[in-house]
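Customer ticket, subject: "Can you confirm the structure for AI-2E family transporter?"

Message body: Hello, I'm evaluating your service for our small team and ran a test protein. I'd like someone to confirm that this is what the system normally returns, since I don't have a reference to compare against.
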Amino acid sequence: MFNLSENKYSLHIFIIIILLVLSFFTIAPVLNMILLGAMIAYGIRPVAGRIQYKLKYPSISIILAMIVVVIPLILLFGYIFWEISNFATMFLASNTATSGSDLTLEQGITNLVQSLPVDAQLTAQNFLNSLSSYLQEGLSYLLRSIVNLVKSFSNVIIQLFVLFCSIYYFAKDGDSFWDYLFAFIPDTHKEFFDKTIDEIANVLKSIFYGHFLTAVIIGIMGGVGYALLGYKFALLLGVITGVLQLIPIFGPWPVYWTLAAYDVFVTGNILQAVLTILWGFVLSLSDMYIRPALAGKYADIHSLILLVGFMAGPYVFGIVGFILGPLILGITYAVIKSLKEELENLKLEID
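Agent reply: Thanks for trying us out. I re-ran your input and got the following:
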């Protein structure tokens, strides 16, 4: 193993650093897709391995695994945009009805609030005003995002192309990347990096199984429950429940409490509101059992790390930051944890 600290390699290192900086600025516009592709490839490789066991063709196995894993995700996002657009259209239409038609949604809510006891009117009106404001802001943001998405359609195509290529080549040649990396690591530090990679793998599994898979399960349960309770857009409500489940301080409660409030103040269906809240409690209690059972097998990541990742990720990487944010912070946690254990072992050896 050569020593990178030798003077004869100084020029080589300097040139490599310059090229790495230039390369970073070159790939910066699509860096989020490359990172996301690497993360998805990590999850796809086991699926591709199972397929390859029967087909014996690595490239075809990876493509089939991508179809099995990635295409449903794209269809899910497409469905979300479609349903939210329909909901926004229906919501706006209900509030722009002519005066000669039936009562608008706003008029119906006003009449309902006025029929409540005097003490409850102020509380109900404040709640509805806040809810209406949040809905209008959310719908406006969504519509602006859709318009911007349509305007930047060519950029979206490029981003998706880079994503698919990154998934394919990281799944196919990911081992070569580690070979290049380990070629520059001194032999005295390889044990540390081996442990670090193992910790990173455990963190990724913990995030996926303990949080993403938990969110999928809770989302499916929520969608089925909302459908049985007779709500429209039950599948969309299930998706929203799953997304909120990813955020540690939220969980499914904003969805079922909002639905219950709608049942009480708009439709007056008290029984359905009670059943919805009970079903929401089932979802919340299920999370307390499912998450530790899945995540505890690999690594226990503090909720603050995930919370910061979910909140800050979208500001840096856009919508994919909901995935990249917690993953990057989780990997950083794994590296620091591995270094901490290395220093503790060194201290024990000295003592």
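A couple of notes from the result: The CA atoms of residues 128 and 256 lie 16 Å apart. The radius of gyration is 25 Å. Feel free to reply with more questions.
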